Amino acid sequence: MDPSIRTAKLYWDSRTKSMDFDYSNYPSGTITAAITELEDRSYTFEVINYDAAQNASLASEITSSPFGESWLVSHAERSIKFAEMDGNDAVITLGKPTDEITETMFRYETVDGKTVEKVFLATEDIVRLPNAKKWKYLDYQSSFCPAEGIDTVWISNWSKSPYPIATKVDNSATVTVTTNQIRDNFKPELILDGIKDNLNSSWYSSNNASYRSIFPKILVIDTKLIGDNALTFNHFVFYENSNPDGRYIRTFNIYVGDSKFNPDDTTLMTFGEPVYTGFLTQLSDVQDVFLTTAKRGRYIAIVFRNSYNTSGFINLWEFEAYGYVASNAN
């Protein structure tokens, strides 16, 4: 910097506003200033330097635009795909961020009643919230910064997760299946044993020529009550054979209700309306099912309509059902 320069003046808003600086207060020769109360529009900033005799330099200028609430209106908050307990932590799976999201902050309740905030970078798609309390909603908000921006701006309002933190049905649940649809020791309760990658820990439908091609084949899960409450379900996961040739499940329905389904009622007359109708592909051994509207009920029925296997086999290695007690959520 020219040693003859003593002071500087910063102008903006057509020189109706200004700030004064004395370089003696900035030994490094670099000045950083915060300009507040700017509107969301373009501004031209001018800097003029002065020597001891108040001779002025030519103005140096730059045009820039601040960004705030009106800029944020056109920017979508990051989405939450699902939030589920894993041990003592909540695991949150997030949707893909926009290019201008920099961070996302979560506010949640812990098991000891504390309210905790944790911030994660936009590059993190799966995050963990330690000691989170199950069946509670999460609050979250993201910060944004345009490509040419210097600082970030946070959305002022908190968003609420679409569902509370869910828990997985464990092996205390009981599983029954349509009569004559168990092959050897491949029992239906094995779909809830937590072993996802072992054929010997799966349910296999009958290989008896008299029964194997009969459809529908129906699994019924009694998830049990938690106190007097049934879970409200929003997410299911199917695990099949790691070998694509062993993935047989094709078209199926899922039912959820408070009355026990009869796995031998192949007419489905007493089942009501399914909460989900769809199919699995043979492209992956792990496939998710998300309900558009969460459904409360003690009992889950999976009705297999047909099979990719020409003999009619169905083989399910593991099944996960995630839900929450709606009366505990807030």
Structure at a glance:
This protein is mainly β. Helix content is 1%, strand content 39%. It folds into 3 domains: 5-66; 70-165, Immunoglobulin-like (Sandwich); 168-328, Sandwich (Jelly Rolls), CATH 2.60.120.260.
What does this protein look like?
The protein has three domains: 5-66; 70-165, Immunoglobulins (Immunoglobulin-like); 168-328, Galactose-binding domain-like (Jelly Rolls), CATH 2.60.120. Helix content is 1%, strand content 39%. It has one helix at 69-72; strands spanning 5-12, 17-22, 43-51, 60-64, 80-86, 89-94, 101-109, 115-121, 126-129, 139-144, 153-154, 159-160, 167-168, 174-177, 203-204, 217-222, 232-239, 251-257, 276-279, 286-296, 299-304, 315-316, 318-324. Strands 7, 8, 10, 11 and 12 form a five-stranded antiparallel sheet that branches. It has a five-stranded antiparallel sheet with strand order 14-16-21-18-19, with no helix packed on it.
